[in-house]
Specification:
The complex is a heterodimer. Chain A is α/β, with parallel strands linked by helices. Helices cover 24% and strands 17% of the residues of chain A. The longest helix of chain A has 31 residues. Helices cover 41% and strands 23% of the residues of chain B. In chain B, helix 1 links the parallel strand 1 and strand 2. The chains are: A alpha/beta, B alpha+beta.
Chain lengths: 513, 71
Amino acid sequence: MNVLLVSIDSLRRDVLSTYRDRPAPMDYAVDTPNLDHFAEKACVFDTHYAGSLPCMPARREWFAGIQEFLWRPWGPLEPFDQELPVLLRESDTLTKLITDHYHYFQYGSNGYYEAFNGFDFVRGHEYDAWRTTPRYPDEAVMNKLLDKRTDHPDSVQFVNRVQYPRNAAELDGEEEFFAPQVFSKTADWIDENDEWDEWFLYVDSFDIHEPFHVPEPYASRYTEEDPDDPDLPVWPYYGRIDEGQSHLTDRQLAFVQSQYAGKATMVDRWFGRVLDTLDAGDLWDETMVILTSDHGFCLGDHGWVGKNHSPMYDALANTPLFVWHPGAERNGERVDALTSAVDLYATILDAMDVPVLDHVHSRSLLPLLMADTDTHRRWALYGYWGTSVNVTDGEYTYLHPCDPDVPTYCYSTTMMNADAMGSFVPRTAKDDATADTSLPYTDAPVWQFSGKSHQQNERPLLFDTDVDPGQERNIAGEDTELTARMRTMLVDAMESLGAPAQQYERLGLDQFR
Amino acid sequence: MPAVIEYCLRNVDEEIEQSLDACHVPTRSLACMEQCGICYREPFFVVDGEFVDGSSHASLLDEILERNDQA
């Protein structure tokens, strides 16, 4: 058995016609014929939720089966993690990573790529610290991508947007863009590695992630605007579209949507090369193929653009999942059972006949795929470290706020920068750190140190996603019995995972334990 | 009057947060403003989408409020 796991970063599920005729904030459909074709062949999961967010926390769930956001934010794999590629190597499976996801190689991450037998890293996406020339990229390109008051080409500051126009200065033709390179390498690798008996290939495409810089014909595919117009952004700041740094006019928002859609269509075209390679090699009978994403991306939903700051609406948390397994009874069918991102870890191990350790938070989806059951989990927890904690039972979503004045705590073997969104600058020593042995999934002591809480939502939000899939009507204040039931589910879920006691205080849940 | 002063939680200390809470201009705290390189290096705010930096938050805030009072 081989396993091909493909993540397409920031892929909203409503971009895919399998899930919705068009993305909710847009009045047109996005062309993704190859993803649609794969969805028809595979088992489509209708109620799949992200767990820990954003990028690297999601990957620790896939790599280690741990829902980390109750304990720590974006950071490295921990020494006590039972890493997926390590376990697979120990079972004589060849492991390979192909990615342009530069966060693996940046401050804040460590340990994610080292265990693979081989890895390809396509350089240059977003802030990837790669090219240092041209010192002064093309003026028109810079005007499109950055504000020189904050991201000046003369500055050597960390996280300078000028990095992208430098990295992209020599991109010449569609095939040199990031997703085309990633999926071309994927197709080539599959084609060239037919002598191996069993392999695990993890393909992590940073596209559709911003900057939404795409070549023609994609840049003009969904807009009549001039894609080179400097007033039309391709790299919006995250936040409210009606104020501040992230403000967008209606015209600008429509353009951002069009470039996101164009990038989705480009990604789809090159993902199709991978499907063609599986066809040509007659590999479907021996290869499990999983297609998913770490999270969505707000494109004006509820007045927000991007991720991180808004409440955890389903535009972000309800993610796509298609799984083809050669022996699955449910290939070509839909499954409405509630599933979680963390479950992919156990699913892959199960498919490769590798035992799953009891302490992880992951449950194999194979019984669902084999039609041995119709149910999977009662609840799914999701969120960012340091802010709201959210739960769904597959019908209702309950977004529970924190008290921003009560600190949150980080638990890690490293003195990682305790920032919910990721930290791309050098680490600082934690003077307040103490040793802690309370983690339920290891006997190893870890550092415990404080961080700031912040609010994604100020009050509880409760939505009935069956009747209100757009989550427009908050019924938390209307249905007190249902609110109490979902709050109890949240507490039960946290207790079953052994969440730190401090979480209950900052969430105001002590009285409900 | 500025519509909103935005600031990064990582960039301010408790004292400045209290000053921001107390000032008569709307403020919005964000867990990250995607200005990590500047945030790592120096104090800054974003006032109505416009980036402003300086030697201290206190002096920056005084300048913003003074400009507001004169307007």
